[in-house]
Automatic annotation (TrEMBL):
InterPro entries: Glyco_trans_15 (IPR002685), Nucleotide-diphossugar_trans (IPR029044). Belongs to the glycosyltransferase 15 family. Pfam families: Glyco_transf_15. GO terms for molecular function: alpha-1,2-mannosyltransferase activity. It comes from Aureobasidium uvarum. Residues 1-27 form the signal peptide. This is Glycosyltransferase family 15 protein. It comes from the Eukaryota.
Length: 420
């Protein structure tokens, strides 16, 4: 018996709706966690702008021409800058990997010096192997004891008790004293080393990192010519238990030093409470967003400024480098976000980079060895750690990429519909 036309149309419509819903369910990822205070949905995550074609920043850029960057050219176009690495002798293989990548993609053209720091003398094996990786000058520096040792005002018993508490909260390296010393040195000591007194810029490189993209311009001259203070590739959320009192101490400092806060600051990025509200609550008002400082290209004059020096001294006396696990990444990031013009902070979108498990992988023919636009490697839950959406929301990609990407406003509006 044939069905009436109206019934047939309803049946067809029902089937169409059913198949549409099935497709949507299959295409839409579920939430990153089953629920609870830190549940973040995939639908809240933006489309990575690295999926869009990436070129170089606009000209003028300084490039190799003849022997203008030759390693033995005393009048080269190099400026007062160095590649900088804090590394131990036993990390030799890891730093050789990093050197191999950066020399291949960039420094074999520009021959900027490498400066290695260690709290113990470097072995001859380390020196021989690293010198063989580059035509550039290589320097091996010992950290002064007064820069590395635990300050006299730190109570060792309290440090151990605090580490016990942090360990219960799954904070990594809580009991590793050398890790705390490293964070303090990277925060407020490295730029005071006599070997860097004539240096203005540095590119920080750690062992076991990868660089994926050929970079054909002098990044240090780019920083100087564009009046940039800091360059990053990755920005993430920190572990709130590791920085519980960092923001309250920062507010104490601001209350007494309001003159240091820049009018064009990134306060909203530092205090966002919409995307991961529990982080803001647990960190007492701090979003925990920070630049991942295992990659940073920066002007040391900022760290040498009165604002930063006084801020670091305040934090150092508060003891959080040892009683908590304040890292140089949140300390640098908060200082930059408060005391610097946000337009002087540059996202190096075009530099492909990996520090396990996170990536910056641009869509460029100059890049190979990484998956375009994939910001992590491993569990999909890592996607929620990406804090670039907040940086783009409150600060933007920067005028360089606005110039390169004529349709950047459209990209942002379609890629970040929930935060624009």
């Amino acid at each position: 018996m044939a069905l009436p036309p109206a019934i047939r149309l309803m049946a067809i419509g029902t089937m169409v709706v059913f198949f549409y819903l099935c497709v949507q369910i299959l295409q839409a990822p579920s939430s990153l966690s089953a629920g609870g205070k830190d549940a973040v949905k995939f639908s809240d995550m933006p489309r990575d702008p690295n999926l869009d074609p990436t070129g170089e920043p606009p000209e003028p850029l300084h490039r190799v021409s003849g022997n203008n960057y030759a390693p033995d050219n005393a009048n080269s176009n190099r400026i007062n800058a160095t590649i900088l690495s804090l590394v131990r002798n036993e990390e030799l293989e890891g730093i050789l990997q990093s050197m191999r990548d950066l020399e291949r993609t960039w420094n074999h053209k520009f021959n900027y010096p490498w400066t290695f720091f260690n709290d113990v003398p470097f072995t001859e094996e380390f020196k021989k192997a690293t010198r063989a990786m580059t035509k550039a000058e290589v320097r091996y520096e010992l950290i002064p004891k007064e820069h590395w040792q635990v300050p006299s005002w730190i109570n060792r018993d309290l440090f151990r008790e605090s580490a016990d508490v942090l360990k219960e909260q799954d904070v990594q390296y809580a009991h590793m004293l050398s890790y705390h010393q490293m964070c303090r040195w990277n925060s407020g000591m490295f730029y005071k080393h006599p070997a860097l007194k004539d240096m203005q810029y540095y590119w920080r490189v750690e062992p076991k990192v990868h660089f994926f993209c050929d970079v054909d311009y002098d990044v240090f001259r780019f920083m100087q010519d564009r009046n940039k203070t800091y360059g990053f590739t990755i920005t993430l959320y920190d572990s709130p238990p590791s920085v519980t009192t960092l923001w309250p101490e920062t507010l104490k400092f601001l209350a007494a030093n309001a003159q240091y806060q820049h009018p064009n600051n990134a306060m909203k990025w530092l205090t966002d409470k919409e995307r991961r509200p529990q982080h803001n609550i647990d960190a007492n008002g701090y979003s925990t967003c920070h630049f991942w400082s295992n990659f940073e290209i920066a002007d040391m004059n900022f760290w040498r400024s009165s604002a930063y020096e006084e801020y670091f001294e305040h934090l150092d006396r508060a003891g959080g480098f040892f009683y908590e696990r304040w890292g140089d990444a949140p300390v640098h990031s908060i200082a930059l976000g408060l005391f610097e013009d946000a337009s002087k902070i540059h996202w190096f979108k075009d530099i492909g980079y990996q520090h396990i498990p996170f990536f910056n992988c641009p869509n460029s023919p100059k890049c190979r060895g990484c998956i375009t636009g994939r910001p992590y490697d491993g569990d999909a839950k890592l996607l929620k750690e990406d804090c670039r959406p907040n940086w783009f929301k409150y600060v933007g990609m920067g005028p360089e990429w606005t110039t390169v990407d004529a349709h950047v406003d459209l990209i942002l509006k379609t890629s970040y519909p929930r935060i624009i």
